[in-house]
Amino acid sequence: MRVTSYGLRVKKRPRTQKQGKINLGKFKPNFARPSIITHVRKQRLRYIAMLPSLITLMNAIMGFVAIGFASRGAGTGAERYFFHNPKLTYFAMAGYMIFIAMVADMLDGRVARLSKSTSSFGGQLDSLCDVISFGVAPAFLMLRLLEGRLAELSAQYVTAGPMVTKFVWICGAVYVACAAIRLARFNVENEEDESAHMAFWGLPSPAAAGVVASIVVFQQDMLPELTERTSWIFRFSEDVLLWGLPVITFGAGILMITRIKYPHLANQLFRGKKPFMSLIYALVILLVVVWHIQTALLVAFCGFALWGVVRWGFMKIKGQRVPEGDFEGPEPEQD
Prior knowledge:
The protein is mainly α and 335 residues long. The protein has one domain (50-318). Helices cover 62% and strands 3% of the residues. It has 10 helices and 4 strands, in the order ββαααααβααβααα. The chain has helices at residues 50-71, 90-114, 120-145, 147-156, 160-189, 205-226, 232-256, 265-270, 276-291, 293-318, and strands at 2-3, 9-10, 199-201, 261-263. The strands form 2 sheets. A two-stranded antiparallel sheet has the order 1-2. A hairpin with a 5-residue loop joins strand 1 and strand 2. Helix 3 (120-145) runs antiparallel to helix 5 and helix 3 runs antiparallel to helix 7. It is globular.
């Protein structure tokens, strides 16, 4: 018998012959850690869905074309590609290419789901293409559009000019970084079920690119038709749009990585059955877009981006609970 430190009496077990002493030479402990470098057999990709992949690649190609048009700078040489509008500038063409990339981005997922050919390869390819079309292309377009103004400013103001130039470059870099983070986060939190895609947490990258592209298209293609270039209204409006574009680009990038709720308009408006008046409203909106597409794009994308911020601020002021999502899907509770 022995007494432990807790005051308990424990009967000492007598040692038998079988117990004896342990032969440490034959004892092999089984607590070795697994090797840090493990050999994992990689799965080879053998088959892909052709049609959705081609549509996704069209998204990346349109983004590349937008970068190419933007690199040509200010000019009206785009009539060689579209003869119906000889006054179309390269900057405006770059903005239109971004919008065509949005159409491809909207179609590829639906085509994949309709053909029952969704795959992890398609999702990863879509995000890589989105980085080009909705991340790099809008930021590069903004930089090229302001390049001439920044050169003039640096020549007039030796100290302030380079500082403004650095700020514009920082705005573009922040936008690209936020777009990449937004798409990577979406890949991690995404659910394959389409019914879960009724809302986004953070401004979607196509919408952020649409904000930048719509301002460029309006300034290049619509503003000269509204007023004469020599008038003070034109000069004032152009200065406001151009110098406000870097700040707007920066804000659109920050909105992409926030948790502000934005509705998935395509799924909410076109999925399932809707009242008859919804068809009338959609037809009226379509006619307005066709009538003045540049103005309609500006109002639609900028209004969509501001709507989430205004709704979030309104709920904060009223003291209501602001939903903070942690995945790309519907909220756990209804508003």
